[in-house]
């Protein structure tokens, strides 16, 4: 009985000693857990902070990149504005020159219109005094140009061109040989004739039946009949001019020069 009691007491004592011995280790373990938990918390907090830092860094880099891009855009716009400014300045200079040109052109036009009127009047007088060939055509040309000169819808340049062209045509008549059909008014009546124009040096006619011939006397300014012996020569000259016969020497009557 005593032995059993002692064993029980011994077991309890051993248990108490064991618990007493374990108590310092338990407290130490608790402190270790606290330290570990605190470290984990700090690590978690550090990771979150790093994420925030990374995010801020990324935003900063984006802002810097945007800034550089905006600077490039500003430089491009500055260059564009410089080019536009130079272009506008050049256009302004061109406009000023154009305005001066218009003013000069207006002055020239005011001066040239009277000149053109004088030129066409002179041409009309020349035709009236000239050898009378293609009179209807030549007079119609002068009348048409007179209408142009009073038409404000036609530019001064075009009107002047028409005047010069009329002078050019009249000048060409002096170097040309031509044949054309006309109704010739003569004192003895109207004749249907083939007219042979040799520049301004000779103007001959031959009736379409080949029986009558004549010429324009530039001194007397009248038509004169020719002897029938000249009919063949005039007829041959007409055929040569019309390319109906091989060209050769034209045998045409001429007025003998007056004695000085």
From TrEMBL:
Signal peptide boundaries: 1-29
Protein name: Uncharacterized protein DUF3450
This protein's UniProt keywords: Coiled coil, Signal
Coiled-coil ranges (or none): 81-108
Keyword Signal: yes
Keyword presence, Signal: yes
Organism: Arenicella xantha
């Amino acid at each position: 009985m005593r032995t059993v009691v002692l064993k029980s007491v011994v077991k309890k004592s051993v248990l108490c000693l064991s618990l007493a011995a374990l108590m310092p280790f338990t407290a130490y373990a608790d402190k270790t857990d606290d330290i570990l938990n605190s470290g984990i918390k700090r690590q978690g907090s550090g990771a979150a902070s790093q994420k925030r830092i990374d995010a801020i860094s990324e935003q900063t880099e984006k802002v810097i990149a945007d800034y550089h891009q905006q600077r490039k855009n500003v430089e491009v716009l500055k260059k564009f504005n410089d080019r536009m400014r130079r272009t506008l300045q050049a256009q302004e200079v061109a406009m000023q020159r154009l305005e001066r040109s218009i003013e000069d052109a207006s002055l020239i036009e005011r001066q040239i219109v009277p000149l053109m009127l004088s030129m066409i009047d002179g041409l009309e007088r020349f035709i009236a005094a000239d050898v009378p060939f293609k009179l209807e055509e030549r007079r119609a040309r002068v009348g048409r140009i007179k209408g142009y000169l009073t038409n404000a819808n036609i530019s001064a340049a075009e009107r002047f061109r028409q005047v010069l062209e009329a002078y050019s045509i009249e000048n060409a008549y002096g170097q040309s040989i031509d044949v054309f059909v006309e109704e010739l008014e003569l004192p003895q009546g109207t004749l249907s004739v083939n007219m042979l124009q040799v520049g301004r040096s000779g103007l001959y006619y031959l009736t379409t039946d080949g029986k009558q011939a004549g010429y324009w006397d530039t001194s007397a300014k009248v038509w004169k009949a020719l002897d029938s012996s000249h009919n063949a020569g005039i007829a041959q000259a007409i055929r040569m001019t019309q390319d109906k016969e091989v060209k050769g020497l034209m045998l045409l009557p001429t007025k003998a020069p007056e004695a000085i």
